[in-house]
Amino acid sequence: MSRADTVTVAAPAKAALGKGIPARRRREKIFNAIGIGSTLVGLIALSLLLFDLAYHGLPRISWDFFVNFPSRRATQAGILSAWVGSLLIIVVTAVFGVTLGVSSGIYLEEYAKRNWVTNIIEVNVNNLAGVPSIVFGLLALGLFVYGLGTGRSILTAGLTLGLLILPIIIVGTREAIRAVPQSLREAAYGVGATKWQVTRDHVLPAATPGILTGVIIGISRALGETAPLITIGALTFIAFLPTSPVSDTFPFISFQWLFDGFTVLPIQAFNWISRPGHDFHANAAAAGLVLLAITLSLNAIAIILRYRLRKKLQW
Amino acid sequence: MATRRTPQELRKMRARERAIEWALFAAAASSVAVTIAIVAVLLYESLGFFAHVPLGTFLTDTMWTPLFADPRYGVLPLLGGTLLSTFVAMLVAGPLGLTAAIYLSEFASSRVREVVKPTLELLSGVPTVVYGFFALLFVTPALQAIIPGLPGFNVLSAGIVMGIMIIPYIASLSEDAMRAVPNGLRDGSLALGATRLETALRVVLPSAFSGVASAFVLGISRAVGETMVVAIAAGQQPNLTIDPREPAATITAYIVQVALGDLPHGSVGYQTIFAVGLVLLLMTLFFNVAAFWLRAKFREAY
C-alpha cells in the first residue's frame, strides 16, 4: 500500500491516461458483446437449420415414410431402402474400421518403439485425417470397384467409410489409452503378466469408455457422409431391399447382402434435393431430419460420455 | 499356490505375444498402405489422362468442357470455383471464428465455456448434405431478397454456409492455441494497466499467432475439400469468375457430377475425375503441411 502511494506520475501523462479510460472500458464492453454475438452465430445457424428442416420435413414424416420405397410420386415416396442401406453399411464400417483402428491405436500407444517407422505411421495418420472425403471415394472407385472387383456394393461402401473414419478411431483410442495411469500397468507387470495380458485385461477395460467416444463420433461421421459413396457409384433410385442375412435353408446365414447394390439416407436426401419442385424438397427435408436426429444424438452421446469421463477420471 | 510354467508353456506364451505384436503392427501399418493406395490410384489414372492431355494445356487452358463434343481440359475454372468458394467461406469463418475464440478464451467465464464448447461441437455432427439443403433452400432465397437477380445456384450462398460450418473448427483450434499462452504474460500486461481486450489483442494473440494461423490454414483445407454444400448450392457449370454471385463448379462438385453420370471405365472423361482429384489432394496436402509447420513453430515458443 505504502509503496503504491509513493508512485508519482507526471501530471500530463496522468491526464492522458485518465482521458482514455472511459473509452477503453467502452471498447472492452463493445468487444464483449461482439464476442458473444460471434459465438452465438453458429448456434443461431443451427437452430435456423433445425427450424427450416422441421418446417418443411415434419409434415412428411409418418409411419409410411419409413416403410415405403422411393417413388416417382413424392407423397408416396419413403426411405425404406435408404435406412436399411445405411444400417447395413454401418455394420460393415464398424466391424472393419473399429477392428483396424483400435488395433492401430493399441500398437501406437502400448507397443511402438520411438523410431522412424513409428514416426512415419504417426505423421501418416495425421495426414490421412486431412484428406478430403471425396478422395477416399476416388480411392474406392479405383481400388475396390475396378481393382478388386467388389462392385458398387454394400461391402465396398462399408470398407470405404471404414477407411475414412480410421484416423478418428485411431486418435480416439490413443487418447483413451494415454489417460490410463502407468501405475496400473506396473502393478500388472509386477505380478508377472505379459504385455498382451496387461493390455487386454487392464488397459483396454479402463480405456473402453474413451475408445467408445471416438467410435461413436466416427460412426456418426460415416452415417452422414455422402460424397465418397456417390463417387463409388451408389444408385440413387433403389426400390428393393438387399438379400436377407437370414435364410430358411442351410446354413441359415447368408452374406449375399454384402454384394448387393444400395442407397443410404444422405444420398436419398441429396437425390430429392436435386429434383425440381417443392414436393420432393419436402421429402429431402424429412430424410435430412431423420439423418440429423440420428447423427446429433450420436454426437450428443459421445460428448456427454467424454465430459462425464473427464470429471470421473481422478486416478 | 502358484505353479511354475514348463519351458514349453513359456515358449508358447512368447510366440503368442510376438504374433499379437505383429498383428497389431500390421493394423497400424495398414494406414500407411491406405495413403500409398490413394496416391497410387490417383497417379495411375492421372497418367492415363495426361497421356491424352498435355500438362501445359491442363494448367493454362481457361475452359473445362471434357464431356462436350469439343472437349477442353483447362482446370483453371474448377480451381477458380474452389478458391472462390473457399475465400467466401473464410471471409465468414475467419473473423467470426477468431472473435468467438478470443471471447471464449479471454472473456467468458468457465461456466459459459463449459456450455458453449460442447454445443459448438454438436455443429460438427450435422451432415454436410443437410448444410447443402440449408444453403439451397434457405440461405439462397434469403440472399435473393437482398441481392436482386441472384441466380438459384451461386457461390455466395454455398460459401457462407461452408463458412458457418467451419466456424466451430477455427474457433476451437484458435482457442486451444490462445489458452496455451502462459498466464504470466496476461498477468504482466494486466498489471501494467492494460484492459482485458488490449491484453487479448496485443499480448495473447501475437503470442498465439502461429497456432491461430495454423487453425485458419486447416479451415482453408477443409473448405477446399468440402463437397456436398457446393455440389448442391453452387451449381455445376465450370465458370472462371471472381464474382461470388455467379454459379461456379468446384473440383469436388465436378467429381460428384461425373460420378452421378455413367461414364465408361477407362475413358478420358472417367480419368478426368482422378486428375482433378490429384490436384485437390495436392492442395489439401499443401495446406495441411503448412498448418503442421506453423504449429511446430508455435510449440518452440514455450
What does this molecule look like?
The complex is a heterodimer of chains A (315) and B (302). Chain A has twelve helices and no strands. Chain A has 315 residues and is mainly α. Chain A has two domains: 2-57; 61-312, MetI-like (MetI-like fold), CATH 1.10.3720.10. In chain A, helix 4 runs parallel beside helix 7 (154-178), helix 4 (80-111) runs antiparallel to helix 9 (195-224) and helix 9 (195-224) runs antiparallel to helix 12. Chain B has 302 residues and is mainly alpha-helical. Chain B folds into two domains: 7-52; 76-301, MetI-like (MetI-like fold, Orthogonal Bundle). Chain B contains twelve helices and no strands. Chain B has helices at 7-52, 55-60, 76-107, 110-123, 128-146, 155-179, 183-191, 196-207, 209-225, 228-233, 251-260, 268-301. In chain B, helix 5 (128-146) packs across helix 6 and helix 6 (155-179) runs antiparallel to helix 9. The model of chain B has no long low-confidence stretch (mean pLDDT 88). At the A-B interface, helix 2, helix 4, helix 5, helix 6 and helix 7 of A face helix 1, helix 3, helix 4, helix 5 and helix 6 of B.
CATH class of the largest domain in chain B: Mainly Alpha
Largest sheet of chain B: none
Question: What is the gyration radius of chain A calculated from CA atoms?
Answer: 27 Å
Based on secondary structure, the structural category of chain B is mainly alpha
Beta-strand level of the residues of chain B, as a percent range? under 5%
Compute the number of strand runs of chain B.
0
What is the 3D shape of chain A? globular
What's the CATH architecture name of the largest domain in chain B? Orthogonal Bundle
Q: Could you tell me which chain pair has the largest interface and how many residues each side has?
A: A-B, 89 and 87 residues
Radius of gyration of chain B: 25 Å
Helix content of chain B: over 70%
Strand content bin of chain A: under 5%
Report mean pLDDT of chain B, rounded to a whole number.
Answer: 88
